[in-house]
Design goal:
The chain is α+β, with helices and mostly antiparallel strands. Helix content is about 20%, strand content about 25%. The chain folds into three domains: about 80 residues, Roll (Structural Genomics Hypothetical 15.5 Kd Protein In mrcA-pckA Intergenic Region, Chain A); about 80 residues, Pseudouridine synthase (2-Layer Sandwich); about 140 residues, Pseudouridine synthase, CATH 3.30.2350. Strands 6, 7, 8, 9, 10, 13, 14, 15 and 16 form a nine-stranded mixed beta sheet that branches. Strands 1-2-5-3-4 form a five-stranded antiparallel beta sheet. The radius of gyration is 23 Å and the shape is globular. The protein starts with a strand and ends with a helix.
Length: about 325
Amino acid sequence: MSAATPSPSSAVAEHIEAIAPLEAAGARADRFLADAIGSLSRSRVKALIEGGHATRDGAPLTDPSESVRAGARYVLAIPPPVPATPQAQAIPLTILYEDADLIVVDKPAGLVVHPAPGNPDGTLVNALLAHAGDDLPGIGGEKRPGIVHRLDKDTSGVMVAAKTERAHRALSEAFAARDLDRAYLALVWGLPQETRGEVSAPIGRHPVDRKRMAVATRGGKPATTRYAVQRAWGAAVALVECRLLTGRTHQIRVHMAHLGHPLVGDPVYLRRTPAAARLLPAPLREALLAFPRQALHAATLGFRHPVTGEALSFASPLPADLAELIALLDGNRQ
């Protein structure tokens, strides 16, 4: 094994190479690399592989459980260290409400909520740190200060963050107990047979693709989503309001796909062109199939103020990209 060790100030990744000996054949790739490197845990190596930081004989290695091939050349790129705590960055925010205890924002699609592998900065947390100054650091933890809930990167809409420990604790408890009012709008393929219903199906990691969630046949965590069709364009597309009785990762996206009505534009759970797409004229069909993100928007959020007890309610209008897509659908009716 050979390694190129950069200087502490280097901003490039450290590349570590290992040639698999005969006795390593058949072992898991992440375990082999962790043993070969010696200074990284298997879970850390696994995360790096899943993040696209490994190759085998020059080809991408993305499956940590892949069997090692004797004589193959494995290279792991270890990203440079990042600051232990997020840094303040001046990123524009659309603020719906703010006081000494909390801040409510309208998060745009494309903005990651907190730093994570692959998104070390440029997140909502970085923006909040710049906006709140000395109020926010450490609230609820150093890595995700102020964050009490999250939206996926490409989901838009209303979010609340805490500015004090008291508010963080009370809001976290409210979200855990579902003691709040929260509604999402989703544009889905097809028209659900029942215009109002409930999906109750446990959610866990996909058994093969670990970056996806799935309805679990065994294990998984209980998950329930209530939905109601708000509008429909024939049997091709529907605008659905969804309310969560639980809060699992990708819950609405997984449950609607499980129901047979995946979200328009969903890059993870829309696995093939839906049959409902054939019900639309070609230009409109192509516009919907080309939509670059899951068509999901956190439209409303209501909760009691964690300090005063006042009932607060906030709404976010559909963002421009979703509104334009709906306008195209409406235009097709004429």
